Amino acid sequence: MRELNLSKRIGPAMIHLFFWCFTIVSLVPFILIFMVSISSEDSIAQKGFSLFPNEISFGAYQFLFNDFTEIAKAYGVTIVATLVGTAVSLLITALFAYPISRAQLPFRRTISFYLFFTMLFGGGLAPWYITYVNMLGMKNTIFSMIIPNLLMGAFNVFLMRSFFASTIPESVIESATIDGAGELKIFFKIVVPLSLPIMATIGLFNTLAYWNDWYNCMLFIDNPDLYNIQYLMTKTLTNIQFLLAKSNSTAQVGELLAKMPRESVRMALAMIGVAPLLFAYPFFQKYYISGITSGAVKG
Protein backbone atom coordinates (compact mmCIF):
# COMPACT_ATOMS: atom_id res chain seq x y z
CA MET A 1 0.00 0.00 0.00
CA ARG A 2 2.85 2.37 0.86
CA GLU A 3 4.55 1.63 -2.47
CA LEU A 4 1.32 2.36 -4.30
CA ASN A 5 0.86 5.69 -2.50
CA LEU A 6 4.51 6.54 -3.14
CA SER A 7 4.14 5.86 -6.86
CA LYS A 8 1.02 8.03 -6.98
CA ARG A 9 2.98 10.89 -5.42
CA ILE A 10 6.11 10.46 -7.52
CA GLY A 11 4.21 10.59 -10.83
CA PRO A 12 2.64 14.06 -10.38
CA ALA A 13 5.84 15.33 -8.73
CA MET A 14 7.90 14.34 -11.78
CA ILE A 15 5.39 15.98 -14.10
CA HIS A 16 5.50 19.19 -12.05
CA LEU A 17 9.29 19.09 -11.98
CA PHE A 18 9.42 18.65 -15.75
CA PHE A 19 7.18 21.62 -16.40
CA TRP A 20 9.04 23.78 -13.87
CA CYS A 21 12.31 22.96 -15.66
CA PHE A 22 10.68 23.61 -19.04
CA THR A 23 9.40 26.98 -17.81
CA ILE A 24 12.82 27.98 -16.51
CA VAL A 25 14.49 26.99 -19.77
CA SER A 26 11.86 29.00 -21.70
CA LEU A 27 12.65 32.07 -19.59
CA VAL A 28 16.41 31.88 -20.21
CA PRO A 29 16.28 33.77 -23.56
CA PHE A 30 14.33 36.64 -21.98
CA ILE A 31 16.71 36.77 -19.03
CA LEU A 32 19.67 36.75 -21.41
CA ILE A 33 18.21 39.61 -23.46
CA PHE A 34 17.64 41.66 -20.30
CA MET A 35 21.13 40.97 -18.96
CA VAL A 36 22.75 41.95 -22.24
CA SER A 37 20.65 45.12 -22.35
CA ILE A 38 22.07 46.23 -18.99
CA SER A 39 25.65 45.20 -19.82
CA SER A 40 28.35 47.65 -20.81
CA GLU A 41 29.50 47.57 -24.42
CA ASP A 42 33.06 46.76 -23.34
CA SER A 43 31.99 43.65 -21.40
CA ILE A 44 29.95 42.45 -24.39
CA ALA A 45 32.96 42.96 -26.68
CA GLN A 46 35.20 40.99 -24.32
CA LYS A 47 32.92 38.13 -23.15
CA GLY A 48 30.06 38.21 -25.63
CA PHE A 49 26.51 37.63 -24.46
CA SER A 50 26.41 36.40 -20.87
CA LEU A 51 23.83 35.78 -18.16
CA PHE A 52 26.32 37.23 -15.67
CA PRO A 53 27.75 40.49 -17.05
CA ASN A 54 31.01 41.80 -15.65
CA GLU A 55 29.86 45.39 -15.66
CA ILE A 56 26.32 46.64 -15.21
CA SER A 57 25.40 49.65 -17.31
CA PHE A 58 22.08 51.27 -18.14
CA GLY A 59 23.64 53.27 -20.97
CA ALA A 60 21.48 51.57 -23.60
CA TYR A 61 18.24 52.62 -21.86
CA GLN A 62 19.60 56.10 -21.23
CA PHE A 63 20.48 56.36 -24.90
CA LEU A 64 17.04 55.18 -26.04
CA PHE A 65 15.09 57.37 -23.63
CA ASN A 66 17.26 60.40 -24.33
CA ASP A 67 14.54 61.43 -26.79
CA PHE A 68 11.57 59.88 -25.00
CA THR A 69 8.95 61.66 -27.12
CA GLU A 70 9.86 59.51 -30.15
CA ILE A 71 9.30 56.27 -28.25
CA ALA A 72 6.22 57.62 -26.47
CA LYS A 73 4.59 58.51 -29.79
CA ALA A 74 5.41 55.08 -31.22
CA TYR A 75 3.99 53.38 -28.14
CA GLY A 76 0.85 55.50 -28.37
CA VAL A 77 0.28 54.58 -32.02
CA THR A 78 0.88 50.90 -31.29
CA ILE A 79 -1.45 50.86 -28.28
CA VAL A 80 -4.28 52.61 -30.18
CA ALA A 81 -3.90 50.35 -33.22
CA THR A 82 -3.72 47.23 -31.03
CA LEU A 83 -6.72 48.04 -28.83
CA VAL A 84 -9.01 49.27 -31.60
CA GLY A 85 -7.85 46.67 -34.12
CA THR A 86 -8.17 43.76 -31.69
CA ALA A 87 -11.66 44.77 -30.54
CA VAL A 88 -13.05 45.37 -34.03
CA SER A 89 -11.30 42.35 -35.53
CA LEU A 90 -12.63 40.11 -32.77
CA LEU A 91 -16.16 41.41 -33.37
CA ILE A 92 -15.94 40.85 -37.13
CA THR A 93 -14.50 37.36 -36.67
CA ALA A 94 -17.29 36.43 -34.24
CA LEU A 95 -20.02 37.87 -36.46
CA PHE A 96 -18.60 35.88 -39.39
CA ALA A 97 -18.05 32.63 -37.47
CA TYR A 98 -21.40 32.46 -35.68
CA PRO A 99 -23.70 32.35 -38.75
CA ILE A 100 -21.64 29.67 -40.52
CA SER A 101 -21.76 27.57 -37.35
CA ARG A 102 -25.58 27.42 -37.63
CA ALA A 103 -26.93 24.52 -39.66
CA GLN A 104 -29.94 26.62 -40.70
CA LEU A 105 -27.84 29.14 -42.67
CA PRO A 106 -28.41 28.82 -46.44
CA PHE A 107 -25.25 28.25 -48.53
CA ARG A 108 -23.26 27.67 -45.36
CA ARG A 109 -20.86 25.28 -47.08
CA THR A 110 -20.35 27.63 -50.02
CA ILE A 111 -19.46 30.51 -47.71
CA SER A 112 -17.10 28.28 -45.73
CA PHE A 113 -15.40 27.13 -48.94
CA TYR A 114 -14.96 30.73 -50.08
CA LEU A 115 -13.39 31.52 -46.72
CA PHE A 116 -11.11 28.49 -46.99
CA PHE A 117 -10.13 29.55 -50.51
CA THR A 118 -8.62 32.75 -49.09
CA MET A 119 -6.18 30.60 -47.09
CA LEU A 120 -4.78 29.19 -50.32
CA PHE A 121 -4.68 32.19 -52.67
CA GLY A 122 -4.26 35.95 -52.30
CA GLY A 123 -4.85 38.85 -54.64
CA GLY A 124 -1.22 39.97 -54.69
CA LEU A 125 0.63 42.84 -53.09
CA ALA A 126 0.24 45.39 -55.91
CA PRO A 127 -3.59 45.39 -56.17
CA TRP A 128 -3.81 45.18 -52.36
CA TYR A 129 -1.63 48.27 -51.98
CA ILE A 130 -3.40 50.20 -54.75
CA THR A 131 -6.80 49.44 -53.21
CA TYR A 132 -5.86 50.81 -49.81
CA VAL A 133 -3.88 53.83 -51.05
CA ASN A 134 -5.72 55.02 -54.16
CA MET A 135 -9.27 53.85 -53.51
CA LEU A 136 -9.48 54.13 -49.70
CA GLY A 137 -6.92 56.91 -49.19
CA MET A 138 -5.15 55.31 -46.24
CA LYS A 139 -1.67 56.65 -46.89
CA ASN A 140 -0.21 58.17 -43.70
CA THR A 141 -3.24 57.45 -41.52
CA ILE A 142 -3.47 55.26 -38.45
CA PHE A 143 -6.30 53.35 -40.15
CA SER A 144 -3.73 51.80 -42.48
CA MET A 145 -2.40 49.87 -39.47
CA ILE A 146 -5.87 48.78 -38.36
CA ILE A 147 -8.13 48.05 -41.33
CA PRO A 148 -5.86 45.73 -43.41
CA ASN A 149 -5.69 43.31 -40.48
CA LEU A 150 -9.30 43.46 -39.32
CA LEU A 151 -10.05 39.94 -40.54
CA MET A 152 -6.85 38.29 -39.38
CA GLY A 153 -7.41 35.13 -41.37
CA ALA A 154 -9.69 32.21 -42.13
CA PHE A 155 -7.99 30.11 -39.44
CA ASN A 156 -9.38 32.30 -36.64
CA VAL A 157 -12.85 32.19 -38.16
CA PHE A 158 -12.81 28.40 -38.48
CA LEU A 159 -11.47 28.03 -34.94
CA MET A 160 -14.26 30.19 -33.57
CA ARG A 161 -16.85 28.47 -35.75
CA SER A 162 -15.79 25.08 -34.38
CA PHE A 163 -16.10 26.40 -30.84
CA PHE A 164 -19.61 27.72 -31.46
CA ALA A 165 -20.71 24.48 -33.11
CA SER A 166 -19.29 22.21 -30.40
CA THR A 167 -19.88 24.24 -27.24
CA ILE A 168 -23.01 26.38 -27.62
CA PRO A 169 -26.04 24.10 -27.03
CA GLU A 170 -28.57 24.31 -29.84
CA SER A 171 -31.37 23.90 -27.28
CA VAL A 172 -30.36 27.15 -25.58
CA ILE A 173 -30.58 29.06 -28.84
CA GLU A 174 -33.92 27.45 -29.68
CA SER A 175 -35.30 28.38 -26.25
CA ALA A 176 -34.22 31.98 -26.72
CA THR A 177 -35.83 32.03 -30.16
CA ILE A 178 -39.10 30.69 -28.77
CA ASP A 179 -39.02 33.43 -26.11
CA GLY A 180 -38.89 36.02 -28.89
CA ALA A 181 -35.19 36.94 -28.85
CA GLY A 182 -33.72 38.10 -32.16
CA GLU A 183 -30.46 36.89 -33.64
CA LEU A 184 -28.44 39.88 -32.43
CA LYS A 185 -29.83 39.58 -28.91
CA ILE A 186 -29.06 35.86 -28.87
CA PHE A 187 -25.56 36.54 -30.09
CA PHE A 188 -24.65 39.28 -27.61
CA LYS A 189 -26.63 38.03 -24.59
CA ILE A 190 -26.07 34.27 -24.88
CA VAL A 191 -23.37 33.30 -27.36
CA VAL A 192 -20.73 35.87 -26.40
CA PRO A 193 -20.90 35.26 -22.61
CA LEU A 194 -20.61 31.50 -23.21
CA SER A 195 -17.66 31.97 -25.55
CA LEU A 196 -15.16 33.81 -23.35
CA PRO A 197 -12.43 31.13 -23.78
CA ILE A 198 -12.39 31.34 -27.58
CA MET A 199 -12.85 35.11 -27.49
CA ALA A 200 -9.78 35.44 -25.25
CA THR A 201 -7.82 33.03 -27.45
CA ILE A 202 -8.58 34.84 -30.71
CA GLY A 203 -8.14 38.16 -28.92
CA LEU A 204 -4.65 37.08 -27.90
CA PHE A 205 -3.83 36.09 -31.48
CA ASN A 206 -5.06 39.45 -32.74
CA THR A 207 -3.23 41.36 -30.02
CA LEU A 208 0.05 39.68 -30.91
CA ALA A 209 -0.48 40.31 -34.61
CA TYR A 210 -1.28 44.01 -34.18
CA TRP A 211 1.46 44.60 -31.62
CA ASN A 212 4.15 42.94 -33.77
CA ASP A 213 3.01 44.45 -37.06
CA TRP A 214 5.63 46.61 -38.73
CA TYR A 215 5.00 45.67 -42.36
CA ASN A 216 1.87 47.78 -42.85
CA CYS A 217 3.60 50.72 -41.20
CA MET A 218 6.50 50.34 -43.62
CA LEU A 219 4.15 50.26 -46.63
CA PHE A 220 1.69 53.00 -45.76
CA ILE A 221 3.42 55.40 -43.34
CA ASP A 222 5.96 58.08 -44.25
CA ASN A 223 5.21 60.42 -41.35
CA PRO A 224 7.57 59.73 -38.40
CA ASP A 225 4.85 60.82 -35.96
CA LEU A 226 2.80 57.78 -37.01
CA TYR A 227 5.53 55.15 -36.71
CA ASN A 228 4.57 52.31 -34.39
CA ILE A 229 7.02 50.82 -31.89
CA GLN A 230 7.88 47.75 -33.97
CA TYR A 231 8.67 49.74 -37.09
CA LEU A 232 10.62 52.23 -35.01
CA MET A 233 12.70 49.33 -33.68
CA THR A 234 13.16 47.89 -37.16
CA LYS A 235 14.20 51.24 -38.55
CA THR A 236 16.58 51.77 -35.64
CA LEU A 237 18.26 48.42 -36.15
CA THR A 238 18.79 49.07 -39.85
CA ASN A 239 19.73 52.74 -39.50
CA ILE A 240 21.02 53.60 -36.03
CA GLN A 241 21.03 57.32 -36.77
CA PHE A 242 17.24 57.36 -36.55
CA LEU A 243 17.33 57.70 -32.76
CA LEU A 244 20.40 59.91 -32.55
CA ALA A 245 20.22 63.65 -31.97
CA LYS A 246 19.99 65.14 -35.44
CA SER A 247 23.10 66.94 -36.52
CA ASN A 248 24.39 68.44 -39.74
CA SER A 249 27.99 67.69 -38.82
CA THR A 250 29.30 64.37 -40.18
CA ALA A 251 32.15 64.34 -37.68
CA GLN A 252 29.75 64.87 -34.81
CA VAL A 253 27.51 62.03 -35.96
CA GLY A 254 30.54 59.77 -36.34
CA GLU A 255 31.62 60.58 -32.80
CA LEU A 256 28.15 59.76 -31.47
CA LEU A 257 28.12 56.49 -33.40
CA ALA A 258 31.49 55.56 -31.94
CA LYS A 259 30.25 56.12 -28.39
CA MET A 260 26.87 54.51 -28.90
CA PRO A 261 26.20 51.15 -27.17
CA ARG A 262 25.29 49.01 -30.17
CA GLU A 263 24.57 45.45 -28.98
CA SER A 264 23.02 46.50 -25.69
CA VAL A 265 20.75 48.91 -27.59
CA ARG A 266 19.48 46.04 -29.74
CA MET A 267 18.57 44.03 -26.67
CA ALA A 268 17.07 47.06 -24.92
CA LEU A 269 14.85 47.61 -27.95
CA ALA A 270 13.75 43.97 -27.80
CA MET A 271 12.85 44.37 -24.11
CA ILE A 272 10.88 47.55 -24.82
CA GLY A 273 8.95 45.80 -27.57
CA VAL A 274 8.15 42.54 -25.77
CA ALA A 275 7.70 43.67 -22.16
CA PRO A 276 4.02 44.79 -22.45
CA LEU A 277 3.05 41.43 -23.97
CA LEU A 278 4.78 39.54 -21.16
CA PHE A 279 2.65 41.41 -18.63
CA ALA A 280 -0.56 41.02 -20.67
CA TYR A 281 -0.29 37.31 -21.39
CA PRO A 282 -1.15 36.02 -17.86
CA PHE A 283 -4.57 37.70 -18.12
CA PHE A 284 -5.38 35.54 -21.18
CA GLN A 285 -3.82 32.34 -19.86
CA LYS A 286 -6.78 30.84 -17.99
CA TYR A 287 -8.95 31.06 -21.12
CA TYR A 288 -6.27 30.20 -23.68
CA ILE A 289 -6.03 26.41 -23.23
CA SER A 290 -9.79 25.82 -22.98
CA GLY A 291 -10.35 27.99 -26.05
CA ILE A 292 -7.90 25.98 -28.16
CA THR A 293 -9.03 22.54 -27.01
CA SER A 294 -12.77 23.26 -27.15
CA GLY A 295 -12.48 24.72 -30.63
CA ALA A 296 -10.65 21.62 -31.81
CA VAL A 297 -13.36 19.13 -30.86
CA LYS A 298 -14.85 19.08 -34.31
CA GLY A 299 -14.23 21.04 -37.49
Automatic annotation (TrEMBL):
Supply the SUPFAM superfamilies for this chain: MetI-like
Q: Which UniProt keywords apply?
A: Cell membrane, Membrane, Transmembrane, Transmembrane helix, Transport
User: Where is it chiefly localized?
Assistant: membrane
Membrane-crossing residue ranges in chain numbering: 12-38, 74-99, 111-130, 142-165, 186-211, 265-284
Q: Which Gene3D superfamilies match?
A: MetI-like
| Family annotation (InterPro entries) | MetI-like, MetI-like_sf
Entry membrane topology: Multi-pass membrane protein
Location in the cell? Cell membrane
Where's the ABC transmembrane type-1 domain? 75-284
Q: Which residues form a coiled coil?
A: none
CDD domains named among the record's database cross-references: TM_PBP2
- What's the domain of life for this entry? Bacteria
PANTHER family recorded:
ABC TRANSPORTER PERMEASE PROTEIN MG189-RELATED-RELATED, POLYGALACTURONAN_RHAMNOGALACTURONAN TRANSPORT SYSTEM PERMEASE PROTEIN YTCP
Q: Report the protein name in the record.
A: Sugar ABC transporter permease
The scientific name of the source species is Paenibacillus aceti
* Lineage per the UniProt record: Bacteria, Bacillati, Bacillota, Bacilli, Bacillales
